[in-house]
Amino acid sequence: MKYDCELIQDLIPLCTDHMASAASQRVVMEHIEECSECKVCYKQVEHAEPKHRESGMAEQKTADYAALARRLGRRRCRNRFLVILVMLVFAGFSICCLNFAAGYRLTPQAAASLERKLNPESVLLGEYDWGTRRFYFYDCKNYYIITGVNHTWHGWINESYYFVYEKKPKPDAIEITGTLCYWADDREAKIQLLSVRCYDEAVARIEVSFFGRQTSREIRDNNLVIFAIEAQGEEKKAMLNTPAGTAYDAEGNVLYYLTEKEDMSWAWIRAGSQ
Fold first, then answer.
1. Nearest to 46 by CA among 64, 27, 25
2. Rounded Cα distance, 127 and 138, in Å
3. Between vectors from CA 109 to CA 104 and to CA 115, what angle results, nearest 5°?
4. What are 71-80's pLDDT values in tens digits?
5. Beta strand segments in 67-212, E
6. How many CB atoms lie within 10 A of CB 162?
7. Is the pTM of this model over 0.70?
8. What is the reported pLDDT for 68?
């Protein structure tokens, strides 16, 4: 049976790739024995196919290598990120451990609790902020104490200073719970603190003055009242002068005066009793 050359030439690529059936291969081979044009076409396709396949395989290998390189690059980036992250975590943990060993704490009250004068019965009465510093006022059963902490980039640190004020067997109507004059090396100022507890319900307001400056506070119940006056410039160079203080009732009548006793301690004396 005679076949059209165009049909034979369509089958030739399938025969050279061994994709055609045995019958189709036999028909093609019989045809090219008789047709010189199709025989030439067969030889051209047969010689071109290996090169085509090799080229395709090379392109596939190149694509595979590129994909592998991308995967390896992403893996290297991920591994570098993990190494840097682990190093940062380790460095941060090491810094935290060193800071903790040096006495730094994350919260100011945790730093204040490192004060050795405090005991399990210590009760926090109040606090006062001054710049980066915070002063804590405690009732330690037999005495009052003022301690301070400072905030730095390491955290909060107890500055290892305190003031202890012994309790009296019977507190005065206005009880002084602590006084502290603090000089800050990193500030051009100093501060005078005075804390009191008032047990006389008739007292409505208390005024005190240090360094020629006056401050006033309203009195409510017997809660701790903190007076703070800051001195700057030339005032900072001067030593603490004797404070002045007056306690008033709701009508403005004077009830008590703050005076300095012979032992250089301070006390509130009822007006008219001197």
1. 25
2. 9
3. 70
4. 777 888 888 8
5. 104-105, 123-130, 133-139, 143-152, 155-166, 174-183, 189-198, 205-210
6. 19
7. no
8. 67
